[in-house]
Amino acid sequence: TQHTFSFGEYHDQRHMGFRTLRVINEDRVKPESGFGTHSHRDMEIVSYVLEGELGHEDSMGTGSVIRPGDVQRMSAGTGVTHSEWNHSKTEPVHFLQIWILPERRGITPSYEQKTLSPEETRNRLRLVASPDGRDGAVTIHQDAQIHVAHLDAGQTLTQAVAAGRHAWVQVARGAIDLNGTALAAGDGAAVSDERALAFRAQDAAEILVFDLG
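Now predict its structure.
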């Protein structure tokens, strides 16, 4: 696991999250291994698979498999247990685990999973999570939005940032320039006091863009 913010045994008071974004873990899971049953509460947890297939089971009775193109949201709320497992005998799983602080404590636990086609994210930012679940996004209980894009090499995009809003950009794969700053796979950037995000893909790239209050 690679941690963007403090998590588990990695602790750095300077990196405790950004706005309501608390965790981005980049996890690589070997075949026939994973995270056994464990508990969460009062957190919005989004899982985004880059490679492989991740099995999920939880105390709400949900059992699913998360694949590339899927976005999973679990609201831990008053408390939930779950496990994540790579059942493949040969193929690893590579995924991002994202935690966002909820707007309030004590939410009833719930689960949601949506599948995106490759065309929906190719060279465009596709909304995948939002407070109102519009446009087929999963619903998160916080004033935050997540967009995803797969960019061809040389492709450019621009995303407006509303006054008073902030952004976090996570590069999942490839390399980009963000407002003139070079970022490579695994890099993240906090953005404040900017009215637009200008992306240029140096290589074919996959990015996640968080719009935060």
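The mean pLDDT is 96.
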